[in-house]
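Action item from last week, closing it out:
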Amino acid sequence: MFSSFPLCLAPMAGVTDPVFRTLCKEEGADVMVTEFVSSEGVLQAWQRNRRYVEFLEPHRPLGIQLFGSVPEHMAAAARIIYDAMRPDFMDINSGCPVPKVVGKNGGSSLLKDLPLLQRIAGAMVRELEKDCPVTAKIRIGWDAEHICAQEAVQRLEDAGISAVTIHGRTRSQQYSGRADWGVIDACARSARIPVIGNGDITTPEDIRRVKETTAVAGVAIGRAAMVAPWIFRQAKAYLATGAVPAPPSAGERISFMLRHARLAVESRHYGDELPTMRAMRSRLLAYAKGIPGTKALRPQLSRVSSLAELQDILSPLLP
């Protein structure tokens, strides 16, 4: 299902929309997963929720991520999505730590009920086994006292899952502290299926290190790609040649920001220009980190409401 040691774009709600996936694909991402969608939302209002899982053919190989807590509903929603979208695989979200997902017994709350996670996986595999693989993303456990990744992987394997991505933090850590690659490595060494590692991958050197020192079959990059989508291209060059290419210049990064905003408005994924620019504010602030002269512009970027305004804010920094 995956190429040799794929560099995957990790799914992130509100971030990995179709435009951002297009940009990351251009920058060398091998495999991508959509933002998550609720199984209950799919069953109750498919057309309204469809926008979360839309993708373009160049995005392949691509998976669509689904969350929920009722095995039969997860399988039924997976069938609706597959028949409409034909993704390359379906992914179970059993790692998201945010309260609105955990509160519905989805995401990482499934790590507190591994038999339920196994039943969900089994139901989806049985529904889709003739059509596409099913994968899953997990965290290493609910908290430091309940590290359960190896049992979770074993149960997912037994249910017929084809691959699993492991984020090396517990749910209680959220995104603080350090990812535990020791647990990820132990799972990868004992698993019969590919294990993709995720967490604290911020540089090409990080990717080479985990490739050479762990048994993971690939890596998933999340927050680092939000700031520097070119990490995929840089990492591939580094793995091939041993040299890390220079990052884009400040001017190239600003041009990238402007292009992302323009493509987002043109896509109408978030509606008209104003809601699109509101959705883009956090993205623009992430891109601006480290660009000389942008620190003073952050208040303006956090309120920007049109492409013309963005151009006015950034054009003085262009060469």
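Closing note: The chain has 14 helices and eight strands.
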